[in-house]
Amino acid sequence: MKITAQQIKSMKGKGRIAMLTAYDYSTAKVMDEAGIEIVLVGDSLGMVVLGYDTTQKVTMNDMVRHTGAVSRGIKKSHVVADLPYGSYGNKEDAARNAKLLIEAGADSVKTEKMPEVTKAIIDAGIPVMGHIGLTPQTITNFRVQGKDEEAANSILEQAKELERAGCYSLILECIPRDLAKKITETVKIPTIGIGAGIDCDGQVLVTPDMLGLFTDFKPKFVKHYAHLSENIKQAVDEYKQEVKERKFPDDAHSFH
Ligand code: KIV
Asked: What is the mean pLDDT of residues 184-209?
């Protein structure tokens, strides 16, 4: 049985939620088997898979295709898919495009800020995860958000608004730990932090970041749990060497 948005909502205060991104079938299958509760088909896809310099270039077609691939690898984890930049500018677009992601296999969708259109999606019967703090689709300064009192209050207000709109959980990205703690204590829905400290109800990282596969830059909050780009390079070097030296394929890897 898949984990529902309602079940995630009810996990508040009952242990931490582990969430990671995936963009393809094989990685999604590993996440599911590892018991990751939420798998995000993030529009970070644009940067870590498609090689763009911004998430803004990700299209609905991209998201539908990758959401399908991820959902085919998952039996239990909750799959949430990002609505990409420009796909939820008004209530009609928002509800229509959210429905397309659900049809592609997502269990819920994620928006960045935008409480009114978020409510329209929820009113159409689709669960939504909100996203505040550093919101990559619209932000121009990629620094910690909410550092002064006014900015911190504004982010706290956004959290309350998205809770009132009916979000089942909230991503808090790149904000001071104390602010994330205050938001987590204020709202009744689970907060999932990325660069928001230890006090959130759960954590998320971009998988190619935490696996050391995407190495163009490394935000302070990213911890490398593996060094895949080095491992892949070693394997590719070894393969290349064996091909050049006529060692591969050997008898064990040939048909007789
Ligand atoms: O697109 C994404 O991967 C995200 C995470 C950073 C939360 O939105």
From this structure: 98
What's the 13 CA to ligand 1 centre distance in angstroms? 23
Looking at domain 5-225, its CATH superfamily turns out to be Phosphoenolpyruvate-binding domains (3.20.20.60)
Residue nearest to atom 4 of ligand 1 (CA): 42
Domain ranges of the chain: 5-225, 228-256
Q: What is the 3-state secondary structure (H, E, C) of the chain?
A: CCCCHHHHHCCCCCCCEEEEECCCHHHHHHHHHCCCCEEEECCCHHHHCCCCCCHHHCCHHHHHHHHHHHHHCCCCCEEEEECCCCCCCCHHHHHHHHHHHHHHCCCEEECCCCHHHHHHHHHCCCCEEEEEECCCCCCCCCCCCCCCHHHHHHHHHHHHHHHHHCCCEEEEECCCHHHHHHHHHHCCCCEEEECCCCCCCEEEECHHHHCCCCCCCCCCCCCCCCCHHHHHHHHHHHHHHHHHCCCCCCHHHCCC
User: pLDDT of 158-174, one tens digit each?
Assistant: 999 999 999 999 999 99
Pocket of ligand 1 (CB under 6 A): 21, 40, 42-44, 82, 171, 173, 194, 204, 206
* Prediction pTM value: 0.97
